[in-house]
Amino acid sequence: MRWFFATLTGLAAVGGVGASFAAEPTQSGVSSEVSQIVQQMGTALSQENIEFKAKTLRVYEDKDGDYLHIGHNMNVEVHRPDRVAIVSNGDDGTTKFFYDGKEAAVLDVADNRYVQVPFTGDLQAMFEAVSERAGVDTPLADLLSGDPAKSFMSGVIAAKLAGTDNVDGVRTKHLHFTQSGATEMELWVDDNNLPRRLILTYRALPGTPNFVAEFSAWNFQNHPTDAAFEFQPPAGATKLNVPSNSEKKP
């Protein structure tokens, strides 16, 4: 499983700290109880139409080598298999991400700059293409994959049920996961099999940075029109060039 540090702002300047998908290790350390909870969550998240909000907090290293936090509030709307619209309002500005099944576009609202990446395919393949070609990484992309449970468990070598907690007054199951590469994850899942909170800790990285996401306002009854996923460049916006597939270095 991979989780992206990078925000959607900065466009081509964004590098991202998303790890590539690793070979699936043995999961003998994962209890059947945890596997069942994750599978149920994956089923809930695999519905055709999804809308939710996420509040994220991540760590980044500044030019002086100090580790600082930055927060974002995200509104996400999905129509599977190949439509998504994300609006991210954060400490570093507002970014909008659109994919209509034919083209992905990312807009930095403050700078009025955008990139467009022609692409046809499902959401997971699209996010990977945009990351590779435009250097733009999308937080929480794995929740939107075709198989969220499989994406979440990729790289996990051990997992346990840590207990039950209340998150904002909602009863949840508190799960703990260990990934290969010294990454730890904590996940809180409510009685509707929906994630309420996620924390990742990167123990192998200097400063032991972490990523925190809190989820709310889950809605599976939304019926968005195609127009909700189509990008219209604002007046005066500057388009940034991205390399085509043929222009990428081997």
Please describe what this structure looks like:
The structure is a single chain. This protein has helices at residues 32-45, 123-134, 148-153; strands spanning 29-30, 49-61, 67-79, 83-90, 93-99, 103-108, 113-118, 156-167, 170-179, 183-190, 195-202, 210-219, 238-239. Strands 1-8-9-10-11-12-2-3-4-5-6-7-13 form a 13-stranded mixed sheet. The model is unreliable at 1-26 (pLDDT under 50). The chain is globular. With 250 residues, the protein is mainly β. It starts with 28 loop residues before the first strand and ends in an 11-residue tail after the last strand. It has a single domain (24-231), classed as Lipoprotein localisation LolA/LolB/LppX (outer membrane lipoprotein receptor (LolB), chain A), CATH 2.50.20.10. Strand 6 (103-108) and strand 7 (113-118) form a beta hairpin. The protein contains 3 helices and 13 strands.
Topology overview:
Layout: E1 29-30, H1 32-45, E2 49-61, E3 67-79, E4 83-90, E5 93-99, E6 103-108, E7 113-118, H2 123-134, H3 148-153, E8 156-167, E9 170-179, E10 183-190, E11 195-202, E12 210-219, E13 238-239
Parallel strand pairs: 1-8, 7-13
Antiparallel strand pairs: 2-3, 2-12, 3-4, 4-5, 5-6, 6-7, 8-9, 9-10, 10-11, 11-12
